[in-house]
Amino acid sequence: MVRQVRAVRTRRALVRAAAEVFAEDGYALASLPVISRRAGVSTGALHFHFPSKDLLAREVEAAATAAVQRLVVREGAGGGGGLQLLVDVSGDLVAALAVDPVLRAGFELAGDPSRKSAEGPGRWWSEWVHGLLREAQGAGELARGVSPEAAAVAVVASVAGFGRLASRQRVRSSPRLVEQFWALLLPGLAAPSHRLPVLPGPRATGTDRTPR
Amino acid sequence: MVRQVRAVRTRRALVRAAAEVFAEDGYALASLPVISRRAGVSTGALHFHFPSKDLLAREVEAAATAAVQRLVVREGAGGGGGLQLLVDVSGDLVAALAVDPVLRAGFELAGDPSRKSAEGPGRWWSEWVHGLLREAQGAGELARGVSPEAAAVAVVASVAGFGRLASRQRVRSSPRLVEQFWALLLPGLAAPSHRLPVLPGPRATGTDRTPR
Questions:
Q1: Of A80, B30, B46, B198, whose CB has the highest number of CB atoms within 10 Å?
Q2: Are A177 and A162 in contact (CB under 8 A)?
Q3: Is B150 within 8 Å of chain A by CB?
């Protein structure tokens, strides 16, 4: 039992160290000995848990995808319309990208030409945003003439941009920027009957959630 | 004279081949012999023009930055307000990203963790968009309460997103998507007195420019 707990902890440390090294050096140059040293485990333990760098990268991607899915589920439980959900989840995601190297690496591995993975969180997230906006259109939440496709590309790209800013800490006010982004986008995006009362949800700005 | 012309042509072929190989394999794994073969020149000629991979990458970045600057100068000559210029240039840039591997590689090298360059076109473009939106705010072109910072991040990230779509050819309608993006953004971004009559300029959709 103790051994199992230790194994889980070791895997987690390896995944986090791998995420950091992938972000710093890129997938191609990331070195397994550097990763195991950073995780504080032996190279033997690394090879026991992850026989190849590819498997380690897949684990980073799977963990990142699961983290994005948890944000969606958590916010989705609150009810509310599709656009409100999108506003809340995007704020949470930017906040999470600022602090979670595994989430960040999961997104960035897909854009690393030496990796070219289609299994990361980026694809799942992009499809979720596209689907949500198409559904919002069907539910009459979008302004007339709005293209859910163009809106989805803009939202996915902008969230990635705010996430990069947040993680570089060059702009510490990124949660505020995400709010301002939505204030900018919603007049053109939302049908007049679906303007949102609260933007974004409290969780997106990192404060405790109060009942709505 | 003939020799000079040939040298210019060889450099250009090498820069284009390098851009394609960087995009396919990433900077770290890009191989100089593969680049020279693709350019149809000897490895000796490659080393004569570019003694290192770093110098070749710098040339790709410089060529890409110059291409973006040319778009800005060309559209800027037409007069009109700052927002109209931004709409026109962004449409041109997405169209150019779809067809120009050097431009694309210039932007992507900065995001390649094995390269980490700060000299590519991305930085220049981002600073130009930020500056333009701050000036537009000063000139009263932006709606009240709009953050030029948040708008700039959204525009820079979205243009990159539309450019990636366009280059992958998964969505062939990317010029139309850029128009729809602006139709989405402008109601929140532009002051009511500065709503634009034409969105975007004809060049952005790839048709011939007619006098305005």
A1: B30
A2: yes
A3: yes
| C-alpha distance across the termini of chain A, in Å | 42
Residue of B144, B180, B195 for testing the chain A interface, max A β-carbons within 10 Å: B180
Q: Exposed e or buried b for every residue in A88-106, given b needs 16+ CB within 10 A?
A: bbbbbbbbbbbebbbbbbb
Tell me if chain B has a CB within 8 Å of the CB of A127.
no
Residues 6+ apart with CB under 8 A from B201: B75, B78, B84, B87, B88, B91, B209, B212
The helix (run of H) or strand (run of E) holding residue A74 is: helix A53-76
Q: Which residues touch B170 (CB under 8 Å, ≥6 apart)? A: none
The shortest C-alpha distance from B171 to chain A (Å) reads 10
Q: What is the ipTM score, two decimals? A: 0.81
pTM: 0.85
Closest CB from B113, B161, B189 relative to A26? B113
Residue with tokens 């989430």: A103
- Here the tokens at position A65 are 């995808």
Q: Which domains occur in chain A, in start order?
A: 58-205 (1.10.357.10)
Is residue A138 within 8 Å of A191, Cβ to Cβ?
Answer: no
Mutate to test the interface with B, among A53, A112, A167, A180 (most CBs of B within 10 A): A180
- The pLDDT tens digits of the residues spanning B160-207 come to 888 888 877 655 566 788 888 998 999 999 998 877 654 544 443 443
**Structure tokens that stand for B13 in this block:** 């072929």
Q: Which residue has the tokens 């431009």?
A: B103
CB of A7 within 8 Å of any CB in chain B? no
Q: Tens of pLDDT along B112-148?
A: 888 877 788 999 999 999 999 999 999 999 999 899 9
DSSP annotation of A203 reads G
Tell me the CA end-to-end span of chain B in Å, nearest whole number: 42
Q: Which residues of B touch A24 (CB under 8 A)?
A: 113
Residues of B in contact with A175 (CB under 8 A): none
- Helix ranges (H only) for A77-173 are 82-99, 101-111, 121-138, 148-168
b/e per residue A179-195 (b: at least 16 CB within 10 A): bbbbbbbbbbbbbeebe
Minimum Cα–Cα distance from B153: chain A residue: A161
Handedness of CA A171, A172, A175, A177 (dihedral sign): negative
